[in-house]
Specification:
about 65% helix, Four Helix Bundle (Hemerythrin (Met), subunit A), about 260 residues, Arc Repressor Mutant, subunit A, mainly alpha, single chain
């Protein structure tokens, strides 16, 4: 038995999904994504051959081939003639893919991936705030005002506050008209919105401080100040993350 086969067989017992046949290809894909990200199959090494995968997961060759095809689309493997299916370097992975990003965040022992996520979100939302300050109509500005006022009332209820927080940011993103940037931010946030490492502390004083940042963004948009709105959003996202951030390591990735 090859080393790659042994790695797969020794990683764990057969997952529970193998006993539930619905959409086996999707389930096998998720399992292999997690194992690749976790390093069970390191970059540059081949995945076990089809017969080994079929035997380990009790699936057909068709299911294995479908799963490998999806792994290729996600950038996790390359099929090389004569070499088999080779795991690619992390630099080749599609980090906007739901499965890849989710597995990477789960596997990250530190907080570097979350720092990178915040930097990306900060860049895109700052630009969208800049645009919103130029194009937002009276209805949008009134809605932002109402959201900020309502969040002032909800600082003692972090769960409800978080819902209005997301609505505030999404209103600005929608106002900018940049559907691609909004989709990227929403995709990134969907992977971390319920994780303790990203949400961090939620006490009342932190909600109060956070909403001061929201109010500065709203005021700059209402004043038709694109540069001020962009800077206010940049500062707000940075400061809010630094407060929530649980790692003692330096936030070098956030420095500009």
């Amino acid at each position: 038995m090859s080393a790659s086969q042994e790695a797969l067989l020794s990683a764990s017992q057969s997952p529970a999904w193998t006993k539930r046949p619905a959409n086996l290809a999707r389930a096998l894909t998720g399992e292999l994504v997690e194992r690749i990200v976790r390093g069970v199959h390191p970059p540059g090494t081949p995945l076990p051959p089809e017969p080994a995968l079929c035997e380990t997961f009790s699936v057909s060759r068709t299911v294995v081939r479908e799963a490998v095809k999806v792994l290729q689309e996600k950038g996790l493997v390359q099929v090389r003639q004569g070499s088999g299916t080779i795991v690619t370097a992390p630099t080749e992975w599609n980090m906007l893919d739901e499965l890849v990003l989710g597995a990477t965040i789960a596997q990250d022992d530190g907080i570097g991936v979350l720092d990178d996520l915040v930097v990306t979100r900060r860049l895109l939302e700052s630009d969208m705030a800049h645009v919103a300050a130029r194009v937002a109509g009276a209805e949008t500005i009134d809605r932002l005002h109402a959201l900020v006022d309502r969040m002032d009332e909800l600082v003692g209820d972090p769960v409800a506050y978080a819902d209005f927080d997301r609505a505030f940011h999404d209103t600005i993103m929608q106002s900018s008209g940049n559907r691609i940037a909004r989709a990227v931010v929403r995709s990134l946030e969907s992977q971390v919105i319920n994780t303790a490492r990203y949400m961090g502390r939620t006490e009342r004083a932190l909600c109060v401080a956070s909403n001061l940042g929201h109010r500065r963004v709203y005021e700059r948009i209402a004043a038709r100040d694109p540069r001020g709105a962009s800077e206010a959003m940049f500062t707000h996202i940075t400061e809010a993350w630094l407060v929530r951030r649980s790692s003692p390591s330096e936030a070098a990735r956030l420095q500009r």
